[in-house]
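Q: I'm writing a short explainer about DNA-binding transcriptional LysR family regulator for a general audience and would like to include a description of its predicted shape. Could you first generate the structure from this sequence?
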Amino acid sequence: MDVLEGCRAFVGVSEHGGFTQAAAALRVPQPVVSRRVAALEKHLGDSLFERSSRRVTLTPFGADLLPSAQRLVRLADDLRHDADRARRRPFRLAVPAVCGTADLARLEAEARRADVHLDLVPAGPAERAELARALAVRAALVAVPPAEGVWAVPLGLAGTAGPATGVLHLESLRPGRSQITSRSRVVWLQPEDDVPHVRDRMTRLRDAVGLRPAQVAVAATLTTAVAEVLGSSDLLLCSPAQAAELGLAWRPLGEFSPARGYGIAANAGTDAERLRTTLWPLVARCLGAAR
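A: Of course. Here's the predicted structure. Afterward I'll give you a sentence or two in plain language.
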């Protein structure tokens, strides 16, 4: 039997002076209260109440057990209250600083519907990893090679000129003989992509197709990179979602398919599992990850 619900019915009848009154207070049908008290009496081995047509009174056995039943009910209520409070405790999560405000707001709002109260901390790749190591957050979305990650975000090249169709080969940016002294087009990497599995592959490709060293560069900030692109024919390495947000025409890279990979660094396995399951589609949409 359910001892807790039996004790709750027992305490209710005692405090409200009858089965009907207890049922109203507990918001259950009166027969349910009667069955629970009867089951508890059977479980404990004696009667808890003297029943008559006029009133219900405690037996000596019931009077002896009432304080313990009251303590059990109070403890159960305290446990439920503590559980509710623990579920509402903010889940501090370090996320990429490139995530847009609207995307982060949607992630936070939809996570609440799943009973997860996120406290989002936008940061760059190195800072996110450090926040996780220092236990300053419960979890962090850390940069990893796409094959090792939980989420993968495709990257391509975006600019202000040209159609957003087909692929764009990096070798097409190779300066001709007439451009020896002029400025060549630059592919700008934002700080989020200043990680080996993106940066190093881009620089190796740059060298392989004969571009100048300065033609693949890491900007100090995303704002700086976008400003360079908006003011010239330069290109930004970014995701399709970022390009759409910035009003740039995006095309995939022809030589290979770069991607951001995101894994989870968490203090507790349960937090990591929640991100992999309940929150996976919400985080994927916020990152612009392939589903």
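A: For your explainer, you could say: The chain has three domains: 3-86, 89-148+261-287, 156-257.
Q: Perfect, that's easy to follow.
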